[in-house]
């Protein structure tokens, strides 16, 4: 197949997976508040979406395999380049590769978002600001220092530990990529595991005896910006961010390519959740923005466990919940669902 066509297919599949996996509850284009307002249970609605994804993947794996066949060679060629760049050394790939890949993704994407806050440009983006009345509160220098500290002094030791844990568990360390259906199912499983890990650890961090010692730091500003996503206490970064993300790949013994794909989704989703803008065609960050504004609701990422535990009752009554969907229009959701 022509190189550019193969490249385009790979990019499209990657972007689709990006949007789909990072926005399960609202990925089918219908705000889940609609299901709620109609009287059905939103938790069931979210679970149905998830089961739908599993069913499609399981029943239509033939087509996914065919699709992967079209772009898989390209992905394999890219992976070969990465693999050889680290001298076919699994340790170097798992530790230094993961560190460089996740950190550069964080800064490149994060700065794209945060520079809008910093410079106020492009002006056309400002209409998508969620807390449009809030003045910009975040000191960039301080955020950059803390995030770099977490990435280097917490992230690198954690990746070393993760490498030995993965070896102890046994993982797919080969150069050959797994089949496409397996990558999709494993990433979906990682999404679920991270939801469980993040929800309960995050809720624990909000316990009145623990909050002021650790998590208060992440809540220093009620209106976050993308690069402040990893602005937190090192203990929080270890327990809530890194451990909940590793849970899926560790349980499954995933291939490093699958892990990197999953890490890129979660980095994107974390940055998007903190960016403070509800852009069209991107997952809605309304739920986590609401958490930063109100503190005591929306502990999870997907919202499934918030439904289950009823920790989204106030959110569901709010305008933010009405705006919490993947917008496919250039009209800002605030205009579609105004405050009054
Ligand atoms: Zn946050
Ligand atoms: Zn919190």
Automatic annotation (TrEMBL):
Compartmental location: Membrane
Transmembrane segments: 93-116, 143-165, 180-200
Entry keyword Transport: no
Top-level taxon of origin: Eukaryota
GO cellular component, one term: membrane
GO MF annotation terms: iron ion binding; oxidoreductase activity
InterPro entries linked: Fatty_acid_hydroxylase (IPR006694), Sterol_Desaturase_Related (IPR050307)
GO BP terms, alphabetized: lipid biosynthetic process
Record keywords, A-Z: Membrane, Transmembrane, Transmembrane helix
Claim: tRNA-binding is one of the keywords in the record: no
Pfam family, one: FA_hydroxylase
Protein name: Fatty acid hydroxylase domain-containing protein 2
Domain Fatty acid hydroxylase span(s) in chain numbering: 188-311
